[in-house]
Amino acid sequence: MKKLLNVLYVTSQDSYLSLDGENVVVFEQEKEIGRVPLHNLEGIVSFGYRGVSPALMGACADRNVSLCFLTPQGRFLARIMGKVRGNVLLRKQQYEASNDKDKALNIAKNCILGKVYNTRWVVERAVRDHKLQVDVERLERASSFLQNSLQNIENCSDMSQLRGYEGEAASIYFGVLDQLILQQKKDFVFSGRNKRPPLDNINAMLSFAYTLLTSMMASALEAVGLDPYVGFMHTDRPGRASLALDLIEELRPVFADRFVLTLINKRMVTKKEFIQKENGAVIFNDKARREFLIEWQDRKKGVITHPFLGEKVEWGMVPFAQAMLLARYLRGELDEYPPFFWK
Q: What is the DSSP code (8-state) at residue 273?
């Protein structure tokens, strides 16, 4: 269990929550593993199936404490609220911000600043750690371009400009991503990003990782009461989780891309685990998909220090932290949305 920004996250799938006086008590295998005063909480998120007691559910509803249920893998199931109070106001603020060009641009700019900053960090780390295995000059040129892009993004004045700068930065970054493949180079050739369908092994892995990350972010947004389908940079489209797509931008390089590179460079995947279909699309076989998901779940358990909050959190909690920070900005509790600048 982890308390973060007044939200209690219970990550064990075997935990059961109950109410003891004014305290939320967490049990695992009939043994108490922790308790938190209910009045200190604005939300509880449970990643398990055992559930909560009716008394705790009633107390949460009465005090407007959000109670959210996700699967152990992080897929959103349901959120229970009492009388409609806070969330309707938060979503109204979200919709108003989405329709306010200046406010939407500021949020989108911060998301893309986080993305480009983090892509540059990934490139710089490769230069630092693997000088003898990479084309240092090529990577340094890419890093310099990404550094200049940060200034352009900061100063851009409309969404079309922002999309242009983001596209240029992404092209430069993906243009050198092949340098970060240190093992199995002949089996994992990367010449650029392609999708719908992915046409090579790496793009198949990236697309799958981005899908998992989007699902995590959508669940996080649901958990804090935001609408994952109303975004600021990605246009609204039926069935498209636009806000989730906005917020994963800053996490793609450091969460998904580095994860895929680790699987390749540590030989945890091989070319034998991919299938090319008649239309050229490349997909995982069933065994590879299972292994990918197992490693993804393990990756989410890694502990980092959140760069804005200064608290130790698991990687799997980062989307929830970013969703909460966005909610606090929309409620007027923060001057701006703080993107995830990884260091």
A: G
Residues 6+ apart with CB under 8 A from 290: none
pLDDT over 90 (residue 89): no
- The candidate with the shortest Cα–Cα distance to 173, out of 231, 132, 119, is 119
14: left (phi over 0), alpha (psi -120 to 50) or beta: alpha
CA distance 300 to 73: 10
Number of C-beta neighbours around residue 250 at 10 A: 25
Per-residue model confidence as pLDDT tens digits over 13-44: 788 999 999 999 999 888 998 899 998 887 88
> What string of DSSP letters covers 253-271?
IIIIIHHHHHHHHTTSS-G
Note the helical H segments in the chain: 54-62, 86-99, 101-129, 136-155, 159-176, 201-224, 242-248, 258-265, 286-300, 318-330
CB of 174 closer than 8 Å to CB of 256: no
Q: What is the pLDDT of residues 308-328, one digit of tens each?
A: 999 999 999 999 999 999 999
What is the gyration radius of the CA atoms in the chain, in angstroms?
Answer: 21
Contact 228, 243 (CB under 8 A): yes
Show the tokens assigned to 245: 């797509």
In this prediction, residue 165 carries a pLDDT of 96
Distance CA 98, CA 235 (A): 10
Largest CA distance in the chain: 64
Q: Which of 130, 121, 139 is nearest to 176 (CA)?
A: 139
3-class secondary-structure state, position 184: coil
Are 323 and 223 a contacting pair, CB within 8 Å?
A: yes
At residue 288, the pLDDT reads 81
CA distance 339 to 114: 5
Q: In what order do the strands lie in the sheet with 15-20?
A: 15-20, 23-28, 31-37
Residue type for 102, please? D
- pTM (2 decimals)? 0.81
- Using a pLDDT cut of 90, give the percent of the chain over it: 58
Please tell me the predicted confidence (pLDDT) of residue 161. Answer: 95
Cα separation, 271 vs 281, whole angstroms: 14
38: helix, strand or coil: helix
